[in-house]
Every structure is written in C-alpha cells, then in structure tokens.
Amino acid sequence: MTTNNVDLVIIGSGPAGLAAASEADKHGLSVVLLDEQTMIGGQIYRNIEYAPPARAEILGKDYAKGEQLASEFRRTATDYRGGATVWNVTNDGVVDYVTAKPGAHTSGNSSVKGKFVLMASGAMERPFPIKGWTLPGAMGAGAAQILLKGAGAVPAGPVILAGCGPLLYLLAWQYLRMGITPAALVDTTAYASYFRALPRLFSALPGWRDLVKGVKLLASVRASGAPVYSGAKNLEIEGEGATEALAFTHRGKRLRIPASLVVLHQGVVPNTQLSMSTGSEHVWDPDQLCWQPVTDKWGRMGNTSLYVAGDSRGIVGALASETQGRIAALSVANRLGIIKNLEAMAAPHLDALKRYTSIRPFLDTLYRPSDEHRIPPDDEVQICRCEEVTAGQIRGYVKLGCLGPNQTKSFGRCGMGPCQGRFCGLTVTEIIAQKRQVQPGEVGHYRIRPPVKPIYLGDFAQGPQQD
Amino acid sequence: MDTSSLFKIPDVKSGKTVTITFEGFPIEVPAGISVAAALLTSGVLQFRTSVVGAEPRAPYCMMGVCFECLVEIDGVASRQSCLIGVCDGMQIRRQSGGKKLQTCTEKKS
Fold this sequence. Notes:
The structure holds 2 protein chains of 2 kinds.
Chain A: E1 5-11, H1 15-26, E2 31-34, H2 53-59, H3 61-74, E3 79-81, E4 84-89, E5 94-99, E6 108-119, E7 123-125, E8 138-140, H4 141-151, E9 154-155, E10 159-164, H5 166-177, E11 184-187, H6 191-197, H7 208-223, E12 228-229, E13 233-238, E14 245-250, E15 253-258, E16 261-266, E17 268-270, H8 273-277, E18 282-285, E19 290-293, E20 306-308, H9 318-335, H10 342-357, H11 360-366, H12 371-374, E21 382-384, E22 389-390, H13 391-399, H14 405-412, H15 425-436, H16 440-443, H17 457-462
Parallel strand pairs in A: 1-2, 1-6, 2-3, 6-20, 8-16, 10-11, 10-16, 11-12
Antiparallel strand pairs in A: 4-5, 5-6, 7-17, 13-14, 14-15, 18-19, 21-22
Chain B: E1 7-8, E2 17-22, E3 25-30, H1 35-40, E4 48-49, E5 56-57, E6 70-73, E7 76-80, E8 91-93
Parallel strand pairs in B: 2-8
Antiparallel strand pairs in B: 2-3, 4-5, 6-7, 6-8
C-alpha cells in the first residue's frame, strides 16, 4: 500500500512541478506528484523523455533544457502518479483524483493528503474568439506544437499561422526546420504596440537573450519566403464544415488566403481552474488580461496550506516557473521546520526570478492581444464553444440585467458544458465588462467548484480507493 | 472517412505501431501517441458534432482544456482523446451531439 499522507502533494509535472519535487526531495520531504498527462514535462517539455534526438534537435535548445530537469527529478524519491486527473483540492491539503482506465465506465478514485499542496497546473491557450474558430482545421498554436512534440506531426496541407506572441513565431521556426513553409504568417501585433512597448525595452534588457532569440525567430520566418502580413486585423476563418481560408484586413485591404489549417495564437493565460476552486482570492491583471491567484512571495495563497507556482500563478515562462517551484518548495520545507534560513537559501532563486521575468512587461505590452480579437464586436461569434453561446447573446443578457458570468449560466447555459468555463470564462468577463463599462475585476469570474474536471458518477459512489 | 489529413508524421517508418479502429475502419498508427494525434494524422477531420447546433468539431487545445476532442472509446462516451494514449485494438467512434446516459446495470468492462 502506498502512503497517502505526505509532506507535499504537487499537481502538475511541468517545469514548476518537477523543480519543486526535486528541491523538496533535497530537503528530505516526502512528495507525491500528480499529473493528468501520462508523461512528465508538462506542455513545454512534453515527451521530453521519449522524443527521438532528431525531433528534440528541431524543437530547439530551450526544449532540450527540459532533459536536465527531468533527469534531476528521476533521481528523487518522489512518488510520481501519472494519468491522474485531480478533481478536488481542499484548503487543508486533501487532493482527490481519478485515474482513467480505458474501456471502463468508472475510473479509480483516490485521495492523498499533503501537509502542503503545490498547484502547478500551468498555462492554457488564450481564447481567440473570431468567426469560424470552432471549425475543424482551426486550432491553437499550443495544440499544433503538442502534436509536433508528442507525435512528430506537422501540417499535411497549407497552413496559416495567425495572431501574435513568441509561441507563434517559435512554431513557425520549428515548422521551417521540418521543411514546412507556412502559406502565410498573419501577424496581429498592432503597429502602435511597438511604440507602447519601447519604454519597457530598457527594463527588459536583463532578459536580452530572449530578446535576441525573438528577433532571430522572426528573421528566419521572413527569410524563408513565407508571406508575412503585419498589423493584420479583423481575422475570420471561412469554411463550410471545415476550415477553407483565413480572411483578414491588411493595410486597409480585405485579403483571403486559402488553407486547410489555421493555427491561432494570442498568448497563453494561467489555468486557474484549480486555484479558483479552492475559493482563494484572485485578481484581474490588466497587463496580462487574465486572473491571477493572490499569493505571498513564496506562492502561498492566504492562510491555507496551498501554494501556486509557475504559469498558473501568472505567465512567467519555463525558467521562471522552475524557479518559482524551487522557491515554493523551500518555503514549505521552512514551514515544516526542516530549513531555518529560508531567506538566505531562497535569495539566489529570487534573484534569478527577477532576471527571468524582466522581459515580461515588454512582451505583455508588445503582444497585447487586440480588443477586437478578445471581445468580438461581431454578435455571431461563438464564445462558449461547449454550449454554443454567442457574443450577441451574452450582450443580450447584460441588457436584461445580467451583471456577471455566473448569471449567464442561468440565462443561456453559458459556461456549463464539459470544459466548465475554461475556454469562455475570460471572454465572457470581458464582454460583460465592456458592455457594462466597468473593469473586468468588478465583473468577476465564474464561481469554480469541484469537481474541477468531469468525472463519472460511479467514482463518487465508490468513494476513494486505497492502492 | 475523410480523405486528406490535417497532419502527417514524416518519420513514421521506424518504430512500433498499433492498430486501432475508427468507425470500424482499421488504422495503423505509431505507438505512444494520443488518440487525438492518431486521428488527426489519419485523415479524421471531424471528431464529434456539437450538442446544440450539431456542428462538426475537432480538437482545439490538445492538452485537456477545451473538450472539443471528445469521442467514444471502447464503448465509453465523452473521452478526452488528447489525454488518452492509443492501445492495440482500441475502438473509436465519433460522438454525435450530447452524451447519452448509460444505465447503472451496464457491466463494467
């Protein structure tokens, strides 16, 4: 039987989770690491232990950095449980999860109790609500990159990369290295953003390596001969039953480029579903345009036994996530009385964190997604993909007196499908805020409750099983 | 089945494969990839139809967030195909509209 009372339960095996497990292990903490995926690495280092060398080479040096982290983690005594879908976290450290079994109508329901819990559930693709974004053949850049990392898959037909942000350019560069030239790169970065971002360039200089990398990526895309359309507006995916083309406005002209695959991206946002479900306070970040949990500098949420680290705490990137994982683990070790000189031990990590995140304000300003692609003016655009609720319907609810996202549920089932509001939440909040002419922070988010993932009724009935 | 794939796997020659079925058609795919990746590289464009408007849908996020990739796997509906790895003999079907409730007396397989 495995122990189900441990010092630290970590949720998520991306950079933050792996680093936290390694750091905690160093100080002798007992650790259980749960991850929904069956392989460690999270999304950024997906398939890191199994990707063939040729593929890892194409993915680039930043991806290869994950190997070190993975092997450091494998040397620890961590009790790693992959394929575990967490559906409940309590403020005193109980974590309930199910382990899916193919072909079974129930999963195995298990429970583990940590003196502390670290949530490192990472980021998710920011919604890109435009006309036609629900068509097959329209997907996120994150998804396309996951297909590349996990399966070595590349587009078979004409592909357009559309939107803005480092991940989009990185994917373009990786496709080029695989011999795939995109039909077009449709860049939505507004010209005005370059000027707005300029004053923040100086403070980004400690992160000069990332800046240089970004410039190189863009240069290689331009050099490839793939048409690049900068400052594109009013994106729309066209097609009957599947993606056929991307239409957009470029320098005042309406263009239409045929493609069977349109890869969309306008940044990533924290996946806050878990931290929100615990009832802890979250605030709207007007620069990153998303919700972030309120934590102390170690990542602890209020007076709970819960910590958050990595992109689920606020978008910081892989290296900073790793550092936040170590900082959180040190703080936990300190609270357990294992280490005394927390400030001194954490100092180098806190310094590194400052360096890794110095580029963020610059990136957040430069690649701020445009209002029209976050809050679609077109009433027909679907916002809630699960229950098929449109922007016009949501604005209609506001006219009828709907003040926040929770009420949209009773008005029209918005946010009540299987994704539980993950993919429409931010958009619904911003649409309501715009219509009511108030700040998103005032409108609030959906109330997130456990189970945070859909689970079988049989799992409830069965209760937790002991291994 | 659809004829042209959205994605392809260029270096597929080497390595282990497994055989799964989609709507009864056998497909040989590399071992170790997700069901969603297997379908997207095998010419499947539409994974399900949406619950309200019966519109065609396919994966959007590939990481367990969007629930667009729901399919029926080995008789169990609403499985997230991006989170489940392929196994030899796995039977996959499209999902039409909403999930039907299964009766309690149905045997666990």
